[in-house]
Amino acid sequence: MTRGEVYTPREADEFLTAEGCFILETWNREADPVVSIARARVAPQVTTRLHRLAGIVERYLILNGEGLVEVEGMASRLVRAGDLVHIPAGLGQRIGNRGDTDLIFLAICTPRFTPRAYQDIDPEPLPDSST
Asked: Based on the number of CB atoms within 10 Å of its own CB, is 106 exposed (0-12), middle (13-18) or buried (19 or more)?
């Protein structure tokens, strides 16, 4: 990168993941491989699937709502706006929305998130799975 940039993500680009949360990629560029930032939104009473990221450290910066975060090797913890959850690479993780409004947080990954790093480790089959 040789100059500054202001990037405004489009709300219409938000998508629902198989993990169970809505993602709006705020910053994820091959030209900036050291970091990615996405806005994650979890609907009320939804818990994301248990997963891990191979080779990627993730941080959840809670912006709105209340959730219960689970990270392998750590006791489950209630989180609220202003809390930051640090998740070392390769640890199982999930977050559940315990409130009645959307749980919104930034997912900040180093190095940047790539789909091949995502590993679903939830013992429950995917909802649309025929197994």
From this structure: middle
Instruction: For residue range 31-57, list pLDDT tens digits in order.
Output: 999 999 999 999 999 999 999 999 999
User: CA torsion sign, 101 to 102 to 106 to 107?
Assistant: positive
Cα–Cα distance between 51 and 82 in angstroms, integer? Answer: 23
Secondary structure (3-state) at 31: coil
- DSSP strands (E only) in 35-92: 36-42, 51-53, 57-64, 66-71, 77-80, 84-87
pTM, rounded to two decimals: 0.93
CA distance 77 to 86: 12
Cα of 118 vs its chain's centroid, Å: 11
The one-letter code for the residue type at 74 is M
Q: Helix (H) and strand (E) counts for the chain?
A: 0, 11
pLDDT tens by residue, 73-131? 999 999 999 999 999 999 999 999 999 999 999 999 999 999 999 999 999 998 765 54
